[in-house]
Amino acid sequence: MTLAEQQWPDFDGKEAEEFGEKLGDIINSGAIAFMISVGHKTGLFDSMADAGPLTSAQIAARAGLKERYVREWLAVMVTGGIVLYEPGARLYKLPAAHAASLTRGGALGNFAVYAQFIPMTGAIEDKLIDCFKTGQGMKYEDYPCFHQVMSEDSDQTVVANIFDLVLPLEPGLKDRLDAGIDVLDAGCGRGHALTALAERFPKNRFVGYDLCVDAIEAACDYAADAGVENIRFEARDLTDFDDVARFDLITTFDAVHDQKHPADYLKRLRRALRPGGVHLMQDIGGSAHLENNLEFPMAAFLYTASCAHCMAVSLGQGGDGLGTMWGWETAERMLKEAGYRRVERHMFEEDPMNVWFVSKA
Ligand SMILES: C[S@@+](CC[C@H](N)C(=O)[O-])C[C@H]1O[C@@H](n2cnc3c(N)ncnc32)[C@H](O)[C@@H]1O
C-alpha cells in the first residue's frame, strides 16, 4: 500500500495521475495564454498572418522586435500548437486557420484580445490577495490598460454586431435613430460603440458618461479622430444619477454588473428614459447558479475576471460586488423591478457568451 493510500482510504492512483496531467495542461495553457497576449500586443501575430514560412529573424524584422525574444516566443507558440515549425530550415508559419482567431480583423474574431485579461489581472495579484484578507475592493486605475483591453473587447462583441444583430431587436429603433433622438451610453468606457453609432446616425445627440477620466479622455480623442461631432463624453459617477426623462435610448454595454448597486442603477436609468424609450443592455450570459454554468463557454475565465476585476471593482466602490456571473436571471429580475413595460432577453448564436436585454419604458 502506498503512503497516499494509507493516508486517504478513498485514494485512487489512476484518478490522481490523470488529475496531475490535467493540472500540467492547465499551467501550460496559462503560460500560452500569457504569451498569446504578448503576441497580440507586439503585433507578432499580425506580422505573421499574411506571410508564408519565415525565419525568426524575418518575423522579428517584420514586427520591429529583437530576434532573440521573438525566437523564444516562437518556441512557446510551436510547442503550444499555434505556430507550425520546419526544423531543417528553421521556418515558422502561422496557419490561416489559426490567424483567423488571433489577428486584428481576423475572420473569426480575435481570441488574443481576451488573452490580455490574464496578464492584466495577474499584474494586480498582490493587491487582490490583500482583498481576500480585508474584504476591500479594487479601483479601475489599479489595472494596467483596462480600458484599452475593454475597448478591443467591445470592438468585437458590440461594435461588430450592433447594426446587423442588435438594433433590429427593437422594431422601429433604426427609424427613430435615423430621425434623430437623444441617446446615452452609460459606462461608455473609451466610447467605441457610441462613436460607431454616432457615425452611422448623424441626426442624433449622443452622450457617453463614465466614471474614469482616462477612459473619457480616450473616448474624446477616438470620436475626434473619427471626425464625429454629434457626440459628447463626460466623466461622471453615475451612482447617484438623477436625470429624469432625458433620453430616448440608453445603452449599457457590459456596464451594469460591475456597478456599485446594479438594482438601484437600473432604476435610475429607467427614470432617465422618456415614455416609449428603450434600454439596450448587453451583459454576460451566464446563469446566477454555479451548477448551470458548468458547460457555459469559458466559465472559469469569466469567474476569474469576476474575482479579479468585476466583483472587486464594485466592492471597491463600497458596492454589492455581484460579479460577472451575477446571471441573466438576476439581470432580468432587476430590469423588471426597475419598472419597464416590457423586458425581452436575446442571445446570438455568433456570441454565446453575452446576453442582450431590450427593455421598453
Ligand atoms: C466593463 S466596462 C465596459 C466599458 C464599455 N461599455 C465597453 O464596453 O468597453 C464597465 C465600465 O463602467 C464604468 N463604471 C463603473 N462604475 C461606474 C460609475 N459608478 N459611474 C460611471 N461609470 C462607471 C467603468 O469605468 C467602465 O468603463
TrEMBL record:
Q: List the keywords (alphabetical).
A: Methyltransferase, Transferase
Q: Enumerate the SUPFAM superfamilies for this protein.
A: S-adenosyl-L-methionine-dependent methyltransferases, Winged helix' DNA-binding domain
- Report the transmembrane regions from the record: none
Q: Name one GO molecular function term.
A: methyltransferase activity
Q: Name one GO biological process term.
A: methylation
- Nucleus found in the keyword field: no
| Highest taxon, organism lineage | Bacteria
Span of domain S-adenosylmethionine-dependent methyltransferase Rv2258c-like winged HTH: 30-104
Residues covered by the Methyltransferase domain: 178-338
Q: Name one Pfam family in it.
A: WHD_Rv2258c
The protein, known as: Methyltransferase domain-containing protein
- Source organism per entry reads Sneathiella chungangensis
